[in-house]
Amino acid sequence: MLKVENLNVHYGKIHAIKGIDFEVNDGEIVTLIGANGAGKSTTLKTLSGLLRPTEGTIVFDDQDLTKVRPSSIPGLGIAQVPEGRQVFAEMSVLENLTMGAYIRNDKDGIESDLNQIFDYFPRLKERIRQSAGTLSGGEQQMLAMGRAMMTRPKLMLLDEPSMGLAPILVDEIFSMIRTINDNGTTVLLVEQNANKALQIADRAYVLETGTVKLSGKASDLLANDEVRSAYLGG
After folding, report:
1. pLDDT at 215 over 80
2. Domains in the chain, ordered, with CATH?
3. Whether the Cβ atoms of residue 96 and residue 147 lie closer than 8 Å to each other
4. DSSP assignment letter at 71
């Protein structure tokens, strides 16, 4: 589904991503883990067209995304849930979700998807007319995920979904990521909570200062002494 080869990204003179290779197969949850500054979020922003690589290819369903206008990428089947949620604070829950369907014109399908999202996240239905900026952090994360789902993505990019959330909400969000994947959406997850990410992922890549240091089955990396020492606190 997604294949990244020799990806290099610069911020001015700073070489943030240094020739990384990775892939995501249809139906998987793949996670990128690593410390702050490792290049995880930069990688996602490059995939969604917010940043342009200085070298390399990003092929999604046989199309090189480096040659696609950023505004066209959602229409190809990629949706990003950004770091920090970034909901439209002054708009209602319903308006935020409807914004996620801006590239669609199938009224019945949009209505059906709204109902599915409310099944996933009942609290959003309870707050359907409430301004998004008044929601709790966990509710805003649910809203950001629901908004992305309204594009009917083949691939969802999730950037630090557990950031700033209480442990019980982290469990709920990760459970929902698994449910979304079980229902047919492929997931690329960037996450500092390496333990949680590795528990739900099929495969993982460990990023360190812009390079891929380790990769493999998530279960293997969860048991890897080097990964446990560096990222799992033991």
Report:
1. yes
2. 2-85+153-231 (3.40.50.300)
3. yes
4. G
